[in-house]
Amino acid sequence: MRAHYFAIGLLGLATLVIADNYFTIALHAPKNPMLHGKLVNARDKSFIAGAPTPSTRCGLDDAAQCPTGNVTLVTRDMSFLASAVPGGQFIYIAPDGSISYPNAHSTLRPPGAQVGGFYSLLASSDHSESVDVLNWRSTKDGTSGLWVCAVAPGAPIAYQAVLKASTGQFNGLGCLSVNGIVIQEAGSSFGAWEYT
Ligand SMILES: *[C@@H]1O[C@H](CO)[C@@H](O)[C@H](O)[C@H]1NC(C)=O
């Protein structure tokens, strides 16, 4: 047990040290050219592949002090959005497989939601360079995998699609499987004051 706590302490420290680097997120689906490489943006409490911009707001009187807010950035393990707002904004996976985040200044999430669970995979790109890819696994039952689903019934997934995760309640029915999320380092500046 002691060794276990020690390891967690080290992880906490490592997170602090690398927290300065933020990453863009895109779909990794090499067998599906229609989805592969599509940028993912945080919009209206979802992660939308193919959305041109995130939905954000500036909570300061002087808007010039806020980040531009036109790009979605996350921490290396996709557990937090790169929000400048005090307290930040964590990312959770709800039991129904939806991937979301609370409002600024809130820690509200559905009962049974999991924060964290994204893990790195070794993956190779078309040019056999290695790329940083994340997949997701439930700590409750080990269910793993990521999907993209229509934004509305009948809407074409090729245009915009909602990112979801496999859970005990959600097996990807009606959605397309993706191999993961490519993360690409984007520097240390926040992406937005708040993602809405
Ligand atoms: C975001 O806005 C900045 C400043 O206007 C601009 O330089 C950058 O290209 C924009 N990025 C995207 C992804 O639109």
Any chance you could write out the topology, listing elements then pairs?
Blueprint lengths: L1 H17 L4 E6 L11 E4 L2 E4 L6 E2 L22 E2 L7 E2 L1 E2 L5 E2 L13 E2 L2 E7 L5 E7 L9 E5 L10 E5 L10 E3 L1 E6 L8 E2 L1
Bound molecules: 2-acetamido-2-deoxy-beta-D-glucopyranose (NAG).
Question: Which keywords apply here?
Answer:
196 residues, mainly beta, five-stranded antiparallel beta sheet, four-stranded antiparallel beta sheet, 1 helix, 16 strands, binds 2-acetamido-2-deoxy-beta-D-glucopyranose
Description:
The chain has a five-stranded antiparallel sheet, with no helix packed on it. It has a four-stranded antiparallel sheet with strand order 1-15-11-10, with no helix packed on it. The chain is mainly beta and 196 residues long. It has one domain (22-195). The chain has one helix spanning 2-18; strands spanning 23-28, 40-43, 46-49, 56-57, 80-81, 89-90, 92-93, 99-100, 114-115, 118-124, 130-136, 146-150, 161-165, 176-178, 180-185, 194-195. It has one helix and 16 strands. The longest helix has 17 residues, at 2-18. Helix content is 9%, strand content 31%. The protein binds 2-acetamido-2-deoxy-beta-D-glucopyranose. 2-acetamido-2-deoxy-beta-D-glucopyranose (NAG) binds at residues 68, 70-71.
Summary, kept brief:
The protein is mainly beta and 196 residues long. The chain is 9% helix and 31% strand.
- Counting DSSP H or I runs of 4 or more residues, the number of helices is 1
N-end to C-end Cα span = 40 Å
Strand and helix order? HEEEEEEEEEEEEEEEE
Radius of gyration: 17 Å
The total count of strands amounts to 16
Low-pLDDT regions = 1-19
Indicate the structural class.
mainly beta
- Mean pLDDT metric: 90
> What best-fitting shape do the alpha-carbon axes yield?
globular
Keywords: Signal
Organism: Hypocrea jecorina (strain ATCC 56765 / BCRC 32924 / NRRL 11460 / Rut C-30) (Trichoderma reesei)
Signal peptide: 1-19
Protein name: IgE-binding protein
